[in-house]
Design goal:
Blueprint (H helix, E strand, L loop, with lengths): L2 H7 L14 E6 L3 H4 L4 H4 L7 H18 L2 E7 L15 H4 L28 E5 L10 H7 L4 E7 L1 H14 L3 E10 L3 H11 L4 E3 L1 H10 L4
């Protein structure tokens, strides 16, 4: 863990962890154009996240290095299919806090719903499409992970206090070990980001990308 992050969150408990690439998956959560691109629906409605531009390059490198170690890469995206009236049918109450989604955004097959382009954001072993915050809600993610003999999940993406956090809770409840790659995720407020990670440290390992890759590559098969 880097010094600045340690100073921000303090020294919280470390849960014993051995990263074995063959039983580890990296989840990329909601790194989609509508959430992350300046032309996306969120930025166009005043919800541009300031930490995203600086995250994209290091995140792509982290995904590539994780894949090289032998870990699985899983891409999780949000899509909202619509009824005959054009309104999303499974967005639930989220549409009340994001009313612009009634008209546009995250529609199946659209540019906005696609994963951001660029080297590193491809070559996934599995893709999961979700309609709520948690990557497990209404999806077959758990079944797919069991079939791959995955025991540990490394979480990355956006936003720390929404879909990443919800996925962390649900993963732990399903007896997956959870690693929060703290410098491979972001949200609008740095203090919220840090606070969420500090709260999750009671049952997850909060590690830097460097620490995670060191663990994966130390045990990867030549």
């Amino acid at each position: 863990m880097n010094d600045s992050f340690r100073q921000a969150v303090g020294d919280f408990p470390r849960i014993p962890l051995t990263l074995r690439p063959e039983s580890t998956a990296v989840l990329l959560i909601d790194v989609q154009n509508d959430f992350c691109a300046p032309e996306g629906i969120y930025a166009r409605n005043g919800l541009e996240c300031p930490g995203i531009p600086a995250l994209m390059g290091p995140l792509a490198e982290f995904l590539a290095a994780s894949k090289q170690s032998g870990a699985r890469l899983i891409n999780v995206r949000t899509e909202y299919a619509c009824g005959p009236d054009g309104v999303p049918v499974e967005a639930g109450l989220h549409i009340e806090s994001r009313p612009f989604l009634k008209e546009d955004g995250l529609r199946p097959g659209s540019w906005g719903a696609r994963t951001v382009e660029g080297e590193g954001f491809s070559g996934f072993d599995l893709e999961i499409v979700k309609v709520r915050f948690s990557s497990f809600f209404g999806t077959d993610l758990e079944e797919q992970l069991r079939a791959l003999n995955i025991e540990t999940l490394i979480l990355t993406g956006v936003y720390t206090n929404y879909c990443v956090q919800a996925t962390a809770f649900d993963a732990y409840q399903r007896n997956f070990r959870v690693v929060m790659a703290h410098d491979m995720m972001t949200t609008w407020d740095a203090e919220v980001h840090t606070g969420v990670l500090k709260g999750l440290s009671g049952f997850t390992n909060v590690l830097s990308a460097r620490e995670i890759l060191a663990g994966l590559h130390a045990r990867s098969t030549p």
